[in-house]
Amino acid sequence: MTPNEINLHPLLSYFEECHEGNLLSFTQWLDKAIYMFHYLPTDTFSETDRQNVCHVLMELKEAVLKIHVEQHNCA
Predict the structure, then answer these.
(1) Which pLDDT belongs to residue 40?
(2) Which of 6, 50, 63, 71 is packed most tightly, with the most Cβ within 10 A?
(3) In this model, does residue 13 exceed pLDDT 90?
(4) Angle at CA 16, nearest 5°, toward 39 and 65?
(5) What number of other Cβ atoms are within 10 A of residue 60's Cβ?
(6) Count of alpha carbons within 13 angstroms of residue 27, beta-carbon side
């Protein structure tokens, strides 16, 4: 592995162990987390922090869905 490469093995292991390799299962849990995040008390996080966290979770979800689609298009 070169210095610029990122070792994603722990993340891949998480998908396999906790979601049995089902990326859609993971995205469903991300949706639930985003939904629940909106119900935290408003003084827990600033509105900007809340938006930023939700944005990061949505970007992660989109990346995982892209991987899922690419896997099924190559099969």
Answers:
(1) 86
(2) 50
(3) no
(4) 55
(5) 14
(6) 15
Which uninterrupted H or E stretch holds 69? helix 47-74
- DSSP string for 10-67: HHHHHHHHHHTT-HHHHHHHHHHHHHHHTTS-TTTS-HHHHHHHHHHHHHHHHHHHHH
* Exposed / middle / buried, residue 50 (Cβ in 10 Å: 0-12, 13-18, 19+): middle
State the angle between helix axes of 23-37 and 47-74 in degrees (0 to 180), rounded to the nearest 10. Answer: 170
CA 40, 62, 19, 50: dihedral to nearest 10 degrees? -10
Place of tokens 């944005």: 55
Count the Cβ atoms, other than its own, within 10 Å of residue 44: 9
**What mean pLDDT do residues 10-15 have?**
86
- 53's tokens: 């966290």
pLDDT one-digit tens code per residue, 34-54:
999 888 888 888 889 989 999
